[in-house]
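#onboarding

Welcome to the new folks! Below is a worked example of what a typical request in this channel looks like: someone posts a single protein sequence, and someone else replies with the predicted structure as tokens. Don't worry about understanding the tokens yet, we'll cover that in week two.

Example request:
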Amino acid sequence: MADEMVRKAQQFINGAYAGKLGIDRIPETGVTGWSMMFALTRALQYELGITSLSDTFGPTTLSTLTSKYPSLNSGTVPSQNFAKIIQSALYCKGYDGGDIDGTYNSRVVASVTQLKQNMGVDFAYPGGNLVPKVFKGLLNMDAYVTVNGGSETIRAVQRWLNGSYVNRRDFFIIPADGNHSRDVAKSMLFAVQYELGMADGTANGVFGPGTQSGLKSHTVATGDSNTFVKLFSAAMVLNQRPVDFVSTFTSGLASAVSTFQSFAKLPVTGTGNFSTWASLLVSYGDQSRNGEACDGVTLITTARAATLKAQGIKYVGRYLTQPDPTPPDDLKHKEIQPGELQTIAANGLRCFPIYQTYGREADGFTYPLGRAAGQAAINAALDHGFKAGTRIFWAVDFDALDEEVTSNVLPHFKGIADAVADDGNRFEIGVYGPRNVCIRTAEAGHSTASFVCDMSSGFSGNFGYPLPSDWAYDQIVTRTVGSGDGSINIDINIASGRDTGQNSFNPPRTPLPDTSLDSDLITAMRTDVGKYMESIGFPNDGGLRSHTHEECFRRVVLEWDSVTTLLAYRYKMRKALIQTTAYWEMRHIDAVDLSVDQAVSTAFNTTGLFKDSSTGIAQIFGSTALLAWNHAVRKGYVEGAIRGDSDEDKYNIWDDCRYDEQFAMSTVPLIHMWNADGAPGNVIEEEPLRPMRLDYTESEIFQILRRYQGSADSEATPHAKQRTALYQIMEKYNSIARNN
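Example response:
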């Protein structure tokens, strides 16, 4: 909701500092946002005489303000504009700033006094004077009253931290909004370091060796009453444990500590010992702990299995796929290797599968990619021999901000959940990622257990979030264990017992050539493909497109099944590559495409000039078909003569693609192989892939699907993300047929 005084503040900035702050004009919306706070910060810097302006209220701004105006009031505020900055900032924070008239009046004094009380620094900075650290807190978007359902107990912790440590050099005022956060978590580490006696400049908010050593001699227990008890109870509060914020270690606090220790799989002592301090203060906790689980990218041999057992390991996480077709040596065994699961089981270990491709940033997570990831993981799990009931952990291996969890991660896991449901819920869904990702995915109903990447303590999704209630594995440290043939580098995981992996496996599925579709699969396959296409905006009745789902499925998948089976066998490619491409292209044909085809035909037959377009069941350009066929002849993929490249030659092959469906379907795999070889002769040539083969990785499949449609910087890339999911559905049924 717009606030007229905020709008007036925005007008003041635009009027007084036009062209002076190095930023665009502030929208006069009456709504506070970071752009306004940045503008006010720059205006303050301008008034302080700082020449290099910045959005950040950093050390230079603070030191300059402190040296020039250590205490601002009606007698020390240097100018009307300076006072207006303060008044404007107060309104942007929800306080009364007076009339933005350039006077540090009684209303400003009252608001500054109230602001400091809300922050919890009123005893450190009594009265209505504005001091530099409070000014810094005024020029950001932090709240100092409870917001967004914040806890009053957490707010009490925040205000206490502010009031107790604000006069230390490197401690700055944190929010007092009742919500835990990264800044609050870091302030707790500063507070602990200050109480351990660390000087300014030594205390740094990092859980380093000095802090750990100090805490090992500061166990708190029932009957203790001191500041360390207060810090410990604060840490319990911030981790959402049901305790009061107190300075005396009561029996009730001891009971809550025991409950937390049991939950986190710590020794249950009821005391605030080092391991418990560590688990409360940083996501990875006490990294000297031994875990019952591990995960890694190294082949488990009999010797390495013996090492793991000697370390107390029971559960081993291994990856279902290796998306990189030419991985570096240290990742060449990332994917489960032939016979490895049997080695794991024979040595008394259990395996839990992990699915991860390249998901290192938000745009790698969408609903279609989730559908693809879901089905790809299922297909791979079945290939390796995992049985129904296994929980697969799908990875989110990047620092997903909360808004990215909403916009990308949750739709992605909805896609995974839909794929698993359409597969008959054979497998359970687990999520690997930062705490916030795990918590929110579970709350959305898209997962049943979490594998928490707590080792990445700097992730914003770990800093300030509690250990998820459904955690199964907690990744805390990387170690190399064993020696000689038994040496292995692993990530150590604490195991909760919510997931125990598997120790019995079906025989693995070998990469057999595709066969004809089993008639018993057709109905399910038709339904599955149709449901997916509807989920991405393609109604089964065709909608604005020229062809319905039923028509495309019948003509591409069913009527040409024997042809695509033969082509896939001949060219050593997956049949799903041909089916997916032709079905996708046919579903996209609309009235415009049909009219363009007619115009191309009319123009050529009238003028003899050929203006290329995509045509036919697989929407193939004449020039593409010509290049692909000639390349196939030169490479020996097919027999025949090299075709010319005149307009007539291009039109003739274009016309064959338009009217001869068998010719068009036979051209699709040739285009795939041409693209795999780098699309030689094309306007934009590509990096060659490995020669076509049955064990193409997911990244190679993606490239083939993308290259069919166009260049990497065109709409072909987002479309390929959608087609990859369609491919995995097609492959699901082809794999069943060839393995029956």
